[in-house]
Amino acid sequence: MIPLLLGSVGTKGALMLGFTAAEVILHYWNSKKIHPEIYIFGRRVHHGEIGALLSASSILMGKIPVPAVALGILAGVGAGLIKDDLADIKEWFRFRKLNLIKKVPK
């Protein structure tokens, strides 16, 4: 049933659906009193970086055997993540190491 519904959404609808999903996720994330920082292999990862990579998935449309709707949703989610994290754009893709000395409360 779901594939039939997604098949009729179209690319623009898929982008809107993905962007809306990102807004819901970010509303939940931003409602937390303390925003947890994400580290992968000891390096800080911003959600704008994840959004940029997801948005790049739109380049793959027609080149891989994945429905365009699915790639459109991923690109929409990516755009929403980028929009929310534009204030930290200078920090993206720097992959700063986790400083455990600063993280330990005194």
Structure description:
The N and C termini lie far apart (55 Å). The chain has 106 residues and is mainly alpha-helical. It has one domain. The protein is globular and about 50 Å long. Helix 2 runs parallel beside helix 4 (68-84). The model has no long low-confidence stretch (mean pLDDT 79). The longest helix is centred in the N-terminal third of the chain and has 21 residues, at 10-30. The protein is built from five helices and two strands. A hairpin with a 2-residue loop joins strand 1 and strand 2. The chain has a two-stranded antiparallel sheet with strand order 1-2.
What is the CA-atom radius of gyration, in angstroms?
A: 16 Å
State mean pLDDT (0 to 100 scale): 79
How many runs of DSSP E, i.e. beta strands? 2
* C-alpha end-to-end distance: 55 Å
Sequence of strands across the biggest β-sheet = 1-2
Shape: globular
Strand content: 5-15%
Main sheet makeup: 2 strands, antiparallel
Q: What count of structural domains?
A: 1
Per-chain topology:
Layout: H1 2-7, H2 10-30, E1 38-40, E2 43-45, H3 47-55, H4 68-84, H5 100-103
Antiparallel strand pairs: 1-2
Helix pairs in contact: 2-4, 3-4
